[in-house]
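Entry 14. Ran structure prediction on the chain below.
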Amino acid sequence: MGKVTVTPEEFSLVFFEADRIAAVTAEIAAKVGIEPDVQVEIEEASPLGRLRVRSVEPIELWAQGGALEDPRRPRYLSERHLAQSLGRLLFRVKDRLNPDFADAPQDDDLTLQQQNIWDIYCLGRLERAGYDAAKSRWLYHFRTRQGFSDVSDAAFDRLWAADGLTWADLESVRTELAEARSAA
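Output, structure tokens:
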């Protein structure tokens, strides 16, 4: 595994530790199979939870502080949210490095449905890598984006259990879900 760099090196608005963020990121990256250096930028002033892969060469991840925060202890780091947030991004990087994801839009251009479908695919793999991915929480989140139906529940289960999908596969799921919502 390459070196993980976290910016800022010292946090002044939240009680995060750059060394801990770097260590967890390096651990997940090794399990994902990412070897190059990883740069992680945390926007500590924001309590929101937006995430983004800024670049895959070099690997640059960006997160608002709320994505890593413990909801029960504002301004404190949550190990669970740290792993879920940066784990999703690292799996997305791995996917983006695969030619089968060449047609995937940049993170800022993903629709909510596309991002949600990709997140579920990433989180299922993260859980199989040994991290608490809060499956029931993400199932509810998936349903609010994709619809409360047997079709969306079945799609969630397929995505969560999948490995080796392509961008075309994820788009096929999005189309299937859009058609189910239109028919309802």
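Strands lie at 4-7, 38-43, 51-56, 59-64, 69-70, 73-77. Will compare against last week's run tomorrow.
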